[in-house]
Design goal:
Metalloenz_LuxS/M16; Peptidase M16; Cytochrome Bc1 Complex, Chain A, domain 1; signal; 6-stranded mixed beta sheet; metal ion binding; 4 domains; Pept_M16_N; single chain; alpha+beta; 26 strands; 947 residues; 7-stranded mixed beta sheet
Length: 947
């Protein structure tokens, strides 16, 4: 299913010091074992729920779940691009943005601030072809506040929308489009695929975000007409999922939504499913390093006959490392960098999509022939029972993981309600896959995936052909008379937000640790409920300990771990994981390497055995080393395609200084990757992958006794061969003087910015004050920086700041992309916001809001096994004790306006910032010079090429 970029970027910026490196999950002890809405007995998955409809047609679904003191508010308006008029592509998505601009009883710009002040999380909206959703999660004592906000959005948003709000959000959405299409690799090829699949007039023909021309031509009268037609209670459904009393919830829903006026029945959408009878082929040039092949077919609508079989076929062909095309193209023939196959299910028709990113020098024609042969083989010969079982296991695990978090559980229930007409459809959904047979999969592939029924798109390196530029009009300064109107009568009692109920104790998840005789630290946080387990093995084996002449070695070693052990080949490992419906990934960061596992409790023993095997017995076989080398070299080339990644790579090189282990890309460089051999990989592994320098962090439905029974026989015998590598301190960063660096990307419609400077390492006493200060400056969506550059000026889709505090390193950064023609103006505004943050203390209201956004949001940030594991793994990586996590509430509560101001003055120094801009030199350089910044030019490798 098409998923557009989110309305806002969620920046969870870590303290990584006296607090933690990555936020942990949270659970009140009294909630342990509390009843949840999801049951998974004997493999039968169900969601306990209650559905009712108000007199005005508003549908409400209650999912009572007391696992955590949270309530998820999930509102679906049953309107998307399928409901747009001709010439108004992107309308539904633009309307999503406008819904956050303000309403009759919630002043403009205050909606997200109410969410922050209440400790809300996951506040966002999204649009797909069939619907628009609006969601956030609040502490359970804020039930009334959430309903007040949601009802005002639905009932009184039209009262406040005027030409100023419309113009601002048109700018924001067009920035989002530039970021997601024109300035993203393969973005224009993705759009071209849909335009080739669907004819003129079909609502799925355009990208969800629409075209620049259509977005810009939308008028205020169009917005009001769309609201009157679709944004009415009888065309919307809300799911409440979480910790509430159903009787109280029903009464409050009636109070806040019962007075909204029903609208006319929205017009039905009747569109014939398009039929392709002759293959359509396109070649789309783009600013890419690696070519990509896309094959796309029209397939049956969601939940129709054949949909489940094609979902299984997607898993068989390209559903992971055990799939046929991955094995053929990535592992065996080494023609592809990546394989992605999906059945994108939608209401009017679906799209079966095969995407293959080619290795450098590989022929797309040769890849296409191999793909065609594999699709034809699946059409002629049914998949094996093992392949079918792997697909079922993966689908079930992914579905359970969506239900672990109340935010995504609520959205899943709403999804089933609209698309299947049954909010409790999950059991029947899984039954579709259980009933699927190998013969049915094969027959369905033969029926739908014929060569003459498809679109073929080749995205190749070259200069993209973009539509004519659509000017951005000047922003109106004020609304004209008569722009406001109402659908519902204003109600004075709504002017005041409802008071919060009694708050439940703020208690973070407990964890205990024990040490095996070989020195391995085991950290355990039990989380009963769904039968899921997550784990991470963390080792002090990251980029920081790379030899000076071998950048990228830590990444290479981690990448080799799943590529075969002494007793299992890479293919056997992949097939074993697929059979479990589990995932296992390895990677290396700045200071640590990690091996992450997630899966079902029932198969945790087998999953932990695979994890132990890849860490303790990697093969480093020469053939696999050569294959992985080629893959890493291609990945290095891909970083040059992504402006934001390129900006970050160059910023690190300039900030840390030549010769510092953190200066190069974590992938290393071409010379190093070509020089690393199996002996170097094994030597690094022997010296760094050792139990006494590692921690195994586990969260999920396991008791300590169960965990010990799993890990002691698997990890207890671990003995690292050879001598441990010597510990050496990380050298300090050696940044050049403050400067502006420009990397030329001709024709780029946006400038990607990475602004970096010094920051504290873990353990500083001011960590909480720094976090709260940064939340106000640039860490939150409602921060000063993002508000000014996005909501006031319309320069960007989002700009955020944060502090990375590691065990031995610290760095401050600001990242985001701005429209090319306002690069200089955006930097000027950014500098003013920094000075303002350092000039005087935050006022009481702002301090309370941003401090609460850190303190009261803890339950909502920490609600999955993966989040618990990430928190304690990051805490261990940063060298902090376990209680650093449980001390979080007290540390945040102690922050004052004075301590936040001091944090800004100590750790937000504009005189020490390095600005890296990746954009069109011809247009950006004059702007930088005009604001008085000396500029040096660097290439895509970060090397100096001029001033």
């Amino acid at each position: 299913m098409h998923a557009p970029a989110p309305r806002r970027l969620v920046a969870l910026l870590s303290l990584a010091g006296a607090l933690l490196a990555t936020a942990p999950a949270m659970a009140a002890p009294e909630a342990a074992g509390a009843p949840g809405a999801v049951s998974a007995e004997a493999g039968q998955v169900a969601v306990r729920h209650e559905k009712f409809t108000l007199d005005n047609g508003f549908e409400v679904i209650l999912v009572e779940d007391h696992r955590l003191p949270l309530v998820a508010f999930n509102l679906w308006v049953h309107a998307g691009p399928r409901n747009e008029a001709a010439g108004q592509t992107g309308f539904a998505h633009l309307f999503e943005h406008l819904m956050f601009a303000g309403s009759r009883h919630v002043p403009r710009g205050q909606f997200d601030k109410f969410i922050d002040a209440a400790g809300g999380t996951d506040s966002n909206g999204s649009t797909n072809f069939d619907r628009t959703n609006y969601f956030f999660t609040l502490p359970s004592n804020q039930l009334a506040l959430g309903l007040w906000l949601k009802s005002d959005m639905l009932g009184w948003m039209i009262d406040e929308v005027d030409s100023v709000a419309l113009a601002n959000q048109q700018d924001v959405v067009r920035n989002e489009r530039r970021q997601s299409f024109e300035n993203r690799p393969y973005g224009m090829a993705d759009e071209a695929m849909y335009q080739a699949l669907y004819p003129e007039g079909h609502p799925y023909r355009a990208a969800v975000i629409g075209s620049h021309a259509d977005i810009q031509r939308i008028r205020l009268a169009d917005v009001k007409a769309f609201a009157r037609t679709y944004y009415r209670p009888n065309n919307a459904t809300m799911v409440l999922a979480g910790d509430f009393d159903p009787a109280e919830a029903r009464a409050l829903v009636q109070k806040y939504f019962g007075t909204l006026k029903a609208g006319p029945k929205p017009p039905d959408v009747h569109v014939a499913m398009p039929e392709i009878t002759q293959e359509r082929r396109l070649v789309v040039p783009d600013r890419v390093e690696l070519s990509r092949l896309t094959l796309a077919w029209h397939t049956p609508p969601m939940f129709a006959a054949g949909d489940a079989e094609l979902d299984v076929a997607a898993h068989v062909l390209g559903g992971g490392r055990a799939s046929r095309l991955y094995g053929l193209l990535v592992r065996d023939r080494q023609l592809a960098q990546s394989v992605d196959v999906s059945q994108g299910s939608q209401s009017l028709s679906s799209v079966f999509n095969i995407e293959i990113v080619a290795r450098p020098g590989a022929s797309l024609e040769a890849i296409e022939q191999l793909v065609d042969a594999e699709v034809a083989r699946l059409a002629a010969t049914p998949p094996s029972e093992a392949e079918l079982a792997q697909a079922r296991a993966s689908i079930q695990t992914q579905l359970l993981q969506r239900m672990e978090k109340v935010t995504t559980l609520a959205d899943l229930v709403n999804h089933y309600n609209q698309m299947a007409g049954d909010p409790g459809f999950v059991g029947r959904d899984l039954a579709r896959y259980a009933a699927t047979t190998p013969a049915a999969v094969s027959a369905t592939v033969a029926r739908w995936l014929a060569k003459d029924r498809r679109v073929v798109v080749q995205a190749v390196p070259g200069e993209p052909v973009l539509p004519p530029e659509v000017p951005t009009p000047p922003m109106p300064t004020k609304a004209a008379k008569g722009e406001r109107e109402s659908i519902n009568v204003a109600q004075a009692w709504r002017n005041k937000p409802p008071a919060a109920g009694p708050a439940k104790p703020l208690t973070l998840p407990a964890a205990r640790s024990f040490t095996l005789p070989n020195g391995l630290t085991v950290i355990h946080s039990p989380k009963p409920g769904l039968p899921l387990v997550s784990a991470s093995l963390v080792l002090r084996a990251g980029q920081a300990v790379n030899p000076a002449d071998r950048p990228g070695l830590a990444t290479f070693v981690a990448a080799m771990l799943p590529e075969g052990t002494a007793t299992r080949s890479a293919q056997q490992l992949a097939e074993s994981l697929a059979a479990l419906g589990a995932s296992l990934h390895a990677n290396a960061g700045a200071e640590t390497a990690q091996v992450d596992f997630s899966g079902l409790k029932a198969t945790a023993r087998e999953g932990f055995a695979l994890m132990a095997d890849v860490v303790q017995n990697p093969a480093f076989a020469d053939a696999e080393v050569e294959r992985k080398r080629a893959q890493l070299l291609a990945a290095l080339a891909q970083t040059r395609e992504q402006p934001d990644q390129l900006a970050s790579v160059v910023a690190d090189r300039v900030y840390f200084g030549e010769g510092h282990p953190l200066a190069p890309s974590s992938l290393g460089d071409e010379a190093s990757l070509k020089a690393i051999d199996s002996a170097a990989l094994r030597q690094f592994w022997q010296g760094r992958y050792r139990p006494e320098r590692a921690a195994l962090v586990v969260a999920g439905d396991l008791t300590e006794a169960e965990l010990r029974a799993l890990v002691e026989p698997l990890f207890g015998p671990w003995r690292a061969p050879g001598e441990a590598a010597a510990e050496r301190p990380l050298p300090p960063a050696r940044p050049a003087a403050t400067r502006t660096v420009l990397v030329d990307k001709p024709g780029a419609p946006q400038t990607a910015l990475a602004i970096v400077g010094p920051g504290p390492a873990a353990g500083v006493p001011q960590a909480a004050s720094i976090k709260v200060m940064n939340a106000g400056f640039g860490g939150l969506f409602t921060s000063r920086l993002n508000t000014q550059l996005r909501e006031v000026k319309g320069y960007t889709y989002g700009v955020f700041s944060g502090y990375g505090m590691g065990r031995e390193r610290g760095q401050f950064s600001i990242r985001g992309s701005v429209r090319t023609d306002v690069t200089g103006a955006a930097l000027v505004d950014l500098g003013k916001e920094i000075q303002g943050m350092r000039a005087k203390p935050m006022g009481a209201a702002e301090l309370q809001r941003v401090r609460n956004a850190q303190l009261l949001s803890l339950p909502g940030l920490f609600d999955t096994n993966a989040a618990v594991v990430a928190g304690y793994a990051g805490n261990w990586s940063a060298g902090q004790p376990l209680n650093a996590i449980t001390e979080l509430p007290a540390r945040y509560a102690a922050v004052t306006s004075a301590s936040a101001l001091q944090a800004a003055r100590d750790f937000l120094d504009p005189a020490r910032l390095i600005v890296v801009a990746v954009g069109d030199k011809a247009k950006v350089l004059p702007q930088l010079k005009a604001i008085g910044r000396p500029v040096e030019l660097r290439d895509a490798e970060g090397a100096l090429v001029g001033k």
